[in-house]
Amino acid sequence: MRKSLTMLLFLVGLVPAFPAIAHHSGAMFDRSKTVTLEGVVKEYKYAAPHTWIQVVIQQDGATVTWAVEGGAPARMKAANLGPDMIKVGDKVTIRAHPLRDGRLGGSFIDIKLPNGQVIKPL
Amino acid sequence: MKISRAYGLSTAIIAMVVAAQSTEVGAQTSPQPMTAAAPAADKPIPRVGPDGPPAYRGRPDFRGAWASQRRSTWGQAKGPLSKEARTGRRMAFLMFDPENAYMEPDPAGDDGGLDFGPMPGSYNTKIPYKPEFRKEYNQIVADAKKGIVADRVGLCEPYGMPRLMAMGPKYIMYDRDMIAMVASNEMRFIYMDGRPHPSGVDVLKSWEGHSTGHWEGDTLVVDTVDIHRGNYDQSNAKHSDQIHVIERMRLIDADTMENEITTIDPVMFKAPWVVKRTYFRGPAGTPNMPADMCPPDNNVIIDKDGGQNVVLPFEEEKPK
Questions:
Q1: Yes or no, beta carbons of B151 and A17 under 8 Å apart
Q2: What is the CATH number for A90?
Q3: CA nearest B73 in A: which residue?
Q4: Count of domains in chain A?
Q5: pLDDT attached to residue A63
Q6: Residue span of the structural domain in which A88 resides
């Protein structure tokens, strides 16, 4: 009884957290790899269920656009990455876990803003 | 069906005993308090007054906003979370029950990343499948570990019952003969006037099923049948269209609700599956309801491997 109560307290202690809706699995992203994208913001789509940041970078001598999927708007806003914080034309550095299939997309890890601040939503 | 319903009652009684052991849970200090107000455990459980509808007078008052975790659904989240809290978030949100889940480790150390749920390969450990369905689930989990996840909620199908209650109610209303629960952007209606479930030509399956409720003391007991086939969570554990769900909801303190959910699946299970979820009271009053359904340009598709993939914003063609 006492042991089970302790276990319950432990488990309940884990539960209070802060989620948003996870509409789809992250299985298409390779979380063992990280890419660093240094470029210019082309679009910050700040909409449910997931935000998307498009960034134009120089890669292997060519100009290419990457699309990075971020958290839900509420999560990004809680990390001070609201729609006013990432603007078209901003020079930023974004780290992401790339798609497994090699297309130019990834899941957002963190961003270095033009003022040098690095923000990682958790 | 009759046999399985009787079977459910006995497990519900067992579940009650287990629930009784956890009454002190609400008394602990939360690591993530929602407000600086007096602890919920020190507040009396709110009850419906003499002016309320007769079906609820003197009963616990579940009305208002709720969340499956203490923060964020209603925009309360501020600042970073501990690793334990982040792990708990994924277990609580996506797996049916933290006590029933194996969490696949994340090579990136973030427990699955932003809003994508647990790492693929995570699964329910105690789901009581018959051998043939256990084999099928094992294959689904093995595929997920390779990056192939075919959970159709990503494609904008509704969550349905009982998965809706894994996420928990967002808002609860008491109408005269019926309790309405908004969960995700779906609505459940729980009839409190003693009517039976439909039979014969009146049976109509739906994502949320047909729910009837009654009070056993301070516990709201809800019985749900006529649910479409579907899955329990992002691990894509499947259920048949014959499931019978019995929920026992009670307040363990003023601001914390426990729901013990017993699912009986005469097609796929060899025994009932009993899991427990905890919900936390959201802001008082009538907050703006969070919108989280898929937008018209939802970009999630099933690719040639049979798993979810995303169409990137600049792509017109779907990935091959």
A1: no
A2: 2.40.50.140
A3: A20
A4: 1
A5: 96
A6: 28-119
Per-residue pLDDT of B204-250, as tens digits, reads 999 999 999 999 999 999 999 999 999 998 889 999 999 999 999 99
CA distances from B244 to A112, B5, B161, B265 (A): 51, 7, 10, 7
Asked whether residue A3 is assigned to any structural domain, the reply reads no
Size of interface A-B (CB pairs under 8 A): 208
> For residue B31, which residues of chain A lie inside 8 Å, CB to CB?
13, 16
pLDDT tens-digit readout, B174-211: 999 999 999 877 899 999 999 999 999 999 999 999 99
For residue B91, give every residue at least 6 positions away whose Cβ sits within 8 Å of its Cβ, in sequence order, or none. Answer: A14, A15, B98, B101, B103, B118
Residues A50-77 pLDDT 10s: 899 999 999 999 999 999 999 888 788 8
Judging contacts by C-beta atoms under 8 Å, the chain A residues touching residue B112 are 26, 31
CA nearest to B149, candidates A43, A82, A22 = A22
User: pLDDT category, B30, cuts 50, 70, 90?
Assistant: very low
Rounded distance, CA B206 to CA B229, Å? 9
Q: Least CB-CB distance to B295: which of A47, A69, A100?
A: A47
Residues of B with Cβ-Cβ distance to A19 under 8 angstroms:
68-69, 72-73, 89-90, 92-93, 115
